[in-house]
Design brief:
Helix content of chain B: 55-70%
Order of helices and strands of chain A: EHEEHHEHHHEHEHEHEHEHEHHEEEE
Largest sheet of chain A: 10 strands, mixed
Helix content of chain A: 25-40%
Order of helices and strands of chain B: HHHH
Number of helices of chain B: 4
Number of helices of chain A: 13
Strand content of chain B: under 5%
Largest sheet of chain B: none
Strand content of chain A: 15-25%
Number of strands of chain B: 0
Shape of chain A: globular
Oligomer: heterodimer
Number of strands of chain A: 14
Radius of gyration of chain A: 20 Å
Strand order of the largest sheet of chain A: 5-4-6-7-1-8-14-13-9-10
Chain lengths: 419, 78
């Protein structure tokens, strides 16, 4: 079966280190930390009192008052990045076949802030128990895909994807498949998350998954360093416009990169812990390379999942060494979560953007917050983790890994576009 | 205009984002003020909360205009 080629023709991002793609990329290269004390709710009683929030976001800049209150923050972020990506792609909506344009958009959790608020409202009124009629529509994790389709009249394939922290990589993979298989010509895809809430922080705190370095929050996300103590929760969204190669060429689109290959696998091991030997991670990387028709020597950069948890980081590095062997020493590795924090269901999307832009600009963003002697005996430091400073190099192809609670693994590979 | 009418008008303007001049007693929530069925349910809840009255689902279904809402609330408060 002949699969169609898929290219990336538009990008959009709202992140803790930049509210559009160009700000995000500039700050990735500068090594800016997005961490700060939590402003979205009173976190003073929590073990973790900091997170990577989006800064300076005012919904009224993007939505009218009536519309904004029907949309959870995560859906708002999704709409904001879809707008940037559509504008960036220069697609003329009146000149494309909207029946062949779709949306697959992810969220790991959905509208948890709305969920919390509406339950609290319900409990505060025991005499008149009422749920808000928008309770369900603000909460459900597929609603970003729905709202984006309504905004742009995209009537093609449309759904949400849920696989915790791998959600948006799965979404991008599935969107890519729609085009490869000839079911659509254009897809809006990516993921959005707004989890910085009492239950988000409280829930992950209870699992001991979050860093508790309240006094050093800006350097708390330190993937691959010996003293790492958990991830830093983040929020935001990323969006990619994927397009059939011929369709993009015909309309003279600017092409950022080509989607080379995608893959998904399971650890089939534990709810939250990654497999200690990285079996599922090795499988997903091998299958992505096979899908892309590339060898380990074709990959110049791996944007790792690298959340800064004690168990996750070493197993991913072992898996990379298992797949890449000696070639692992020739490529650059980095965890941009050191800067953005962990955006859960949006992380795959913003890291896909980082991977694509590394190919476009031939520069790899760093893993910040590492001190030279801060090492972990379970991690091999002969690999190049791009610590602290970005590195210019030829990036022919970049791989992005994401792993989600539940043992879901998703990997995507982008490569330079060459006609 | 009664206090109830003024407050009802204020809540509608706030919720539906329509100009105050359009919120006449005859105005229909769905036909004139751009509300959908969910908006209307939410407005009824706002009225209940604001005025401390209970509006049953059966009663709520009979309220389709601004004037009907005001009348219902004023009767409940008597």
């Amino acid at each position: 079966m002949n699969l169609r080629r898929v290219v990336v023709t538009g990008l959009g991002a709202i992140t803790p280190i930049g509210n559009n793609v160009s700000e995000y990329w500039d700050n990735l290269l500068k090594g800016v930390s997005g961490a700060g004390l939590i402003t979205l709710f009173d976190a003073s009683k929590f073990k973790t009192q900091f997170a990577c929030e989006v800064k300076g976001y005012n919904p009224e800049e993007f939505f009218d008052h009536k519309e904004a209150r029907k949309l959870d923050r995560y859906v708002q972020f999704a709409m904001v990045v879809a707008k940037e990506a559509i504008e960036n792609s220069a697609i003329q909506l009146d000149s494309i076949d909207l029946d062949r344009a779709g949306v697959i958009f992810a969220s790991g959790i959905g509208g948890i802030m709305s969920y919390e608020r509406d339950i609290a409202d319900f409990l505060q009124n025991p005499d008149m128990p009422r749920f808000n009629p928008f309770f369900i529509t603000r909460m459900i994790a597929n609603m970003a895909a729905g709202h984006i389709s309504m905004q742009y009249s995209f009537r093609g394939p449309n759904f949400g994807v849920v696989s915790a922290c791998a959600s948006s990589t799965h979404a991008i993979s599935l969107a890519c498949d729609q085009i490869r298989l000839g079911r659509a010509d254009i897809m809006i895809t990516g993921g959005a998350e707004a989890p910085i809430s009492t239950s988000g922080i409280g829930g992950f705190n209870a699992m001991r998954a979050l860093s508790t370095r309240n006094d050093e929050y800006q350097t708390a996300s330190r993937p691959l360093s010996g003293s790492r103590d958990g991830f830093v929760l983040g929020e935001g969204a990323g969006c990619l416009i994927l397009e059939d190669y011929d369709h993009a060429i015909k309309r003279g689109a600017h092409i950022y990169a080509e989607v080379a290959g995608v893959a998904a696998s399971a650890d089939a091991y534990h709810m939250t812990a990654t497999h200690p030997d990285g079996l599922g991670a090795m499988l997903v990387m091998r299958n992505a390379l096979k899908d892309a028709g590339l060898t380990v020597d074709d990959i110049d950069y791996i944007n790792i999942h690298g959340t800064s948890t004690p168990n996750g980081d070493p197993s991913e590095i072992k898996a990379i060494q298992g797949v890449f062997g000696e070639s692992a020493k020739k490529l650059n590795i980095s965890s941009t979560k050191s800067m953005t924090g962990h955006l859960m269901g949006a992380t795959g999307a913003i890291e896909a953007i980082a991977s694509i832009l590394s190919i476009v600009h031939n520069e790899v963003p760093p893993t910040i917050n590492h001190k030279e002697d801060d090492v972990d005996p379970n991690i091999d430091y002969s690999l190049n983790y791009t610590f602290n400073v970005s590195q210019k190099r030829l990036v022919r192809a970049a791989m992005s890994n994401t792993f989600g609670f539940g043992g879901h693994n998703a990997t995507i590979i982008f490569k330079k576009f060459e006609g | 205009m009664s206090d109830v009418a003024a407050k009802v008008k204020e809540l509608i303007v706030e919720k539906l984002g329509v100009p105050e001049s359009e919120v006449t007693p005859e105005a229909s929530f769905t036909n004139d003020l751009g509300a959908d069925s969910l908006d209307t349910v939410e407005l009824i809840m706002d009225f209940e909360r604001e005025f401390g009255v209970q509006i049953s689902d059966d009663q709520a279904q009979k309220i389709s205009t601004v004037g009907e809402a005001i009348e219902h609330i004023e009767n409940s408060l008597k």
